[in-house]
Design a protein that fits this description.
Elements (H helix, E strand, L loop, with lengths): L8 H11 L33 H8 L7 H10 L1 H9 L12 H8 L4 H10 L10 H11 L9 H7 L4 H9 L5 H11 L11 H26 L6
């Protein structure tokens, strides 16, 4: 298990409800609430195998932006390669359903997903300022059931490791986490509000909210600590 908060169903449900509440700021919901379903979602049939402007708008809802040079590169210069790789990554496979062989096929070092990651981050070429967080949000937009979002807040909470591997391990092997996340999504009431995030997105939201809460707790402890005079 990546963190104990994933086993605290009551707290996790509260976090998800808070994330999707309608009056987050100025009477409007949090922008991130629209990430998954903006313009019908990034994995809908007619756009699943290509990047669109709507994908980049959706990514901006999560407080990152795709640099103009990268947008041009991905949607024009690398278009054929990106389209090809997306066509090799299924939309109907969930990370939680993969055994080890399936993990290697779909997410391993020789997988189309790994190759797409390297294209988006320009690992083997001149960089265009897309780091792991932005790349993961682009890929999670296109394959929400297979690719988790990489986030510094979450990494600070759970530690820095092999992100995809660590999430897969937590979701498989009889941990019961998949069923727990399904229950959190259902009992949070967000389905009735029209939101249908993947369980990876639910997991991301819970860990992110806990990470922010943990940072706030640390700040409070530091602020309350007595000054030491030498």
């Amino acid at each position: 298990m990546l963190h104990d908060v994933l086993e605290d169903t009551e707290k996790a449900i509260a976090y998800v409800r808070d994330y999707y509440r309608a009056d987050f700021r100025q009477g409007l919901p949090r922008t991130g609430a629209s990430f998954d379903q903006w313009a019908g979602g990034g994995d809908r049939a007619d756009v699943a195998n290509r990047l669109t402007g709507d994908d980049f708008v959706a990514v901006s809802f999560l407080t990152v932006n795709v640099p103009p040079m990268a947008a041009i590169g991905l949607m024009r210069d690398e278009k054929k390669n990106v389209d090809r790789l997306l066509s090799l990554i299924p939309t109907n496979v969930r990370m939680s359903d993969l055994d080890q062989k399936g993990y290697e096929r779909h997410l391993g070092m020789d997988s189309p997903a790994q190759e797409l990651w390297e294209v988006i981050t320009r690992r083997n070429g001149a960089k265009w300022d897309i780091g792991s967080t932005t790349a993961s949000k682009i890929m999670a937009r296109k394959r929400p059931h297979l690719i988790p979002i990489v986030d510094r807040v979450i990494q600070d909470l759970v530690g820095f490791g092999h992100y995809w591997h660590d999430w897969h391990k937590s979701l498989t092997g009889g941990t019961g986490l998949t069923e727990c996340l399904d229950r959190i999504r259902r009992d949070s009431g967000i389905l009735e509000l029209g939101y249908e995030p993947s369980i990876l997105r639910i997991m991301d939201i819970v860990l992110w909210q806990e990470g922010l809460a943990e940072k706030a707790r640390r700040r409070d402890v530091a602020a309350a600590a007595p000054l030491v005079h030498g």
